[in-house]
Every structure is written in structure tokens, then in C-alpha cells.
Amino acid sequence: MRITKRAAAIAPSMTLEITAKAKQMKNQGISVVSFGAGEPDFNTPEPILFAAQQAMEQGFTKYTPASGMPELKQAIAEKLKRENGLEYTADQIVVSNGAKHSLYNVMQAIVEDGDEVIIPAPYWLTYPELVKLCNGVVVSVTTRVENDFKITAEEFEGAITSKTKAIILNSPNNPTGAVYSKEELYSLAEIAIKHNVFVISDEIYEKLIYDGKEHVSIATHSAEMKDLTIIINGMSKAFSMTGWRIGYLAAPLDIVAGINSIQSHETSNPCSVAQAASVAAFHMDDNFIKEMRNVFDDRRIYAINRIRAIKGLDCLVPQGAFYIMVNVSAFYGKTVDGITINGSLSFAKAMLNRGVAVIPGEPFEADDYVRLSYAIDKAEIEIGLDRIEKFANEVL
Ligand code: PLP
After folding, report:
1. Is 11 a residue whose pLDDT tops 80?
2. Which residues line ligand 1 (CB under 6 A)?
């Protein structure tokens, strides 16, 4: 084998594979509704675009400090204070090429060979691959649907061994849409402190939250918890800036020092123009986010009501992000168009033949489910659900 075992062990992203296939079908003129979207379908707001143009015109096109430009790190520290009630200094922030890169850096900085990282399942499929890339061991903990797919303190403690280094928490959650309450987070914090386990807290969907729920960062529990927390966030979802590739983390200084060294050799700074644009994002009022949230909320309620009325389908009410986990196990054992449906992958294949792309739950360790994103036009959602309904009426 010419590539490392490490590289060979990484599973390619199945989410991207299905969305690519759907795109290819569309290019061939086939009508496909794609529920695969992992990014808001909004334009990046004007003030951000304007700041990027200005940055280019003013020659802000050179290297910045590897960990990010001081103004952006300062704006992030102020945001954490203002919105999350957390005191961080600018030198506790590292700006990277997307939150995915921030996560990769954290793993590189804290996971030794053989260290265990707990990941509540269903999970965002990148997490285990990043752990494996650092020769860490993934300990996935299956959460229960009755508990809205949230890990409990008992389940967390039950998964801890002498090798446990960290747990990855993601609230609001991709793919489940679950939002942890303050009480739930604080009971997990007690366990993390008791066993000296890091919490990698991915808060990238914090702005996309519904039903009057409130986003809380686990780091607010106490000084001890803050010292064990690495907060991950980014511009992608809150400001519809997925392509700009700006993510960031906030962490204790010793961890930041390690990450700074890694990033200085790995990529140097993230794009200077995108950083300048991100500073402008933090100076905008809330109107863009509020409007985006309202649009998502309207689609969410529409989609949930439709899904629950379709024969054989069921779903929980997601309270954050822009995904719905739909239980499709009623279809298992049926054969359609020559495809025997025996799991989420074959369900997704059968649905793609009928012009609907959904993301199978199997790679999230949730094989009874498929994930539908409502980051697409409401009219498209309607057409897609009509097709799923027709399929269900025919098959069941
Ligand atoms: N974390 C979660 C849970 C996500 O769903 C995503 C993107 O889909 C990311 C992190 C990464 O975001 P980005 O790298 O665009 O900042």
C-alpha cells in the first residue's frame, strides 16, 4: 500500500457522495429535490461583502499572524462575552480555515496515540474521522430517541475509562437538531470535571435555535469547566459564509499555544480577506440572523407536519440547526424498483431513483434514519415531500 494506514482508514464523506450524485442527475436534466444541503441557502450579507471588497482595495492581501488578525480575535472575544457570558482574551482565540479545521487542530493538540474520545451518536460524520487521523480511539455512545438523542450524565460516565481524553458535544446538533438545556450540560460538566475529561464543544449552530430554546455553552458552568473546554464555532452557518472558510476556537492558553504552533506550520493564517469580512460580520445587527432563523423555522414546522402525516414516517421535533432525522425503518424489508430496502443506504438509493436525495443515517450510526435538510426553498421541500409521500403510499 502506497498510502498510510491512517489515510486508508478514513471514510470518504458519504454526505458529499450523495449530494454529488444528485447534482450529476440534475446536470443530466433529471428533476431531483436534494435534501442534502449542509449550508444556509442565503447570500452572505452585504456588509460582509463590502468589507471584503474594501480589504482587497486597501491591499489587505498579505499574511496575517498565523492564528488570525488581532481585530478579528478581539471581535470574537467580545462576542463570547456579549452573547455567551464567557471571558476570553484575544490570545485565547485561534482563527482557522473553517470550524472543521479548528476541530482538526484540537485533536492534533490533545489526542495522543490510543487516547479515547467519546462521541455521542448519532454524530456529525467528520468527528470520528478526525479522531482516527490522530491515532485516537473513537468511543461512540448510542443515545436514545426517548431522550431526544442527548447523552446523559450516566451514559457519559459509563463510557469513561483511564484512557478517556475528551468528549465531543454538539448543541444544537447535526444531525438530530437536539439542543441541550443548561441543566443537562451542567450535569455533563460535573462528570467531565470529576474525571478530568476535556469537552470539545461544537457550537456552530448556536444561532439556529427554535421554540424559545436558549443556547448555553458548557464552559459557563465554572472556572474548572472552562479550563477543560475548547469552544468551536465559525462563520459558516450564522452568517451564511460556508465558502469563506473561517472558523475559530476559544481555549485555555496552554492548548492555544499548542494549536498556534501546529497551525503556523500547517496552513499559516486563514485567508486575510475572509478574516476582514468576518470582522464586519461581528459588527452587524441581528436582523440577518433573525430573518434567516424565521425562514428556517417556518420550513421546519411545515416539514415536520408533512413528515408526520406520511405513512410509515416519523420524526422528533428538532429544536436547532436545519436538519430533521426521519425514521424510515417501516420501509425495511420492502423491494422497490429492484432495490431491497434493508437500511438507510438502500432507502436513500431507492429514493434517489424517485427524484429525492436524502442523507442516509448509517454513517452517523443511526441506520433507522435518514437526514433531511430544510436549508432549501420551501417549494422544493413541498415537491420533495410529495414524492416521498407518493413512494410511501405505493410501497407500504
Ligand atoms: N460542525 C458541525 C456540527 C457541522 O455540521 C459543520 C458543517 O457542516 C462544521 C462543524 C464545519 O463547519 P465549517 O468548517 O464550514 O466552519
Report:
1. no
2. 38, 98-100, 124, 170, 174, 202, 204, 234, 236, 242, 247
